[in-house]
Amino acid sequence: MSSYPDLYTLIHTINTELAEAMRSPGSAQQKFVPVQEKLTKFVLVATGTLHLAIAIDDLSEVGPLPAITTLPNLPPWIQGVVNVRSEIVSVIDLAGFLKSGRRGVCGGKRFVVLRHRKQKIGIRLDRIVGTVSRAVTETKPLDYIDNNQMEKSLFATGLLVENTLYYILNVRRFLTAPSLIDFRSR
Fold first, then answer.
1. What's the CATH code, domain 39-185?
2. What is the rounded CA–CA span in Å between residue 125 and residue 107?
């Protein structure tokens, strides 16, 4: 015959040992368990010698550049507008906008359309390199890996991919930059 007091004693002993184990410094509750970091997928692109990494979540279009309609009285970095699925999108030369001195007007036949909320803008590219997935811990602050005078508010971090530095574009900051919204204020 089983004895109820013995079962009660066993459960009480297990609960006491479990509570003690949870309080001890080496408890499972206090041990570091590595959590897999969320990966961000980036599209790697190039315009002249400027290499960019753009999070796929910040894009609405990637591919061949449609015919550009030029508009009068605009700065040279605003190349015109294109029709993308019945939506008019401005196309710019990013290197010209940044005044990076890396290259003049981009003449590439590719583009990406950046989006933030309802705002969209196209960037003309020379080529689309590919895609990579990286964790935040794999990005590097530009201060440590690049001594170039790039606009740090738009490019705070970068990725090294096959010995090439790709500047990670902060699309939200770029699309809300006063000098982009009102180009006459430049």
1. 2.40.50.180
2. 8
Mind giving me the DSSP string for 86-152?
TEEEEEE-HHHHHT-SS-SS---SEEEEEEETTEEEEEEESEEEEEEEEEGGG-EEHHHH--S---T
Full-model pTM: 0.74
Each residue's pLDDT tens digit, 7-23: 666 666 666 666 666 66
Q: Are 95 and 48 in contact (CB under 8 A)?
A: yes
CB atoms under 10 Å from CB of 166, counted, come to 26
List CB contacts of 59: < 8 A, sequence separation 6 or more: 43, 112, 113, 114, 115
Q: Rounded distance, CA 118 to CA 140, Å?
A: 30
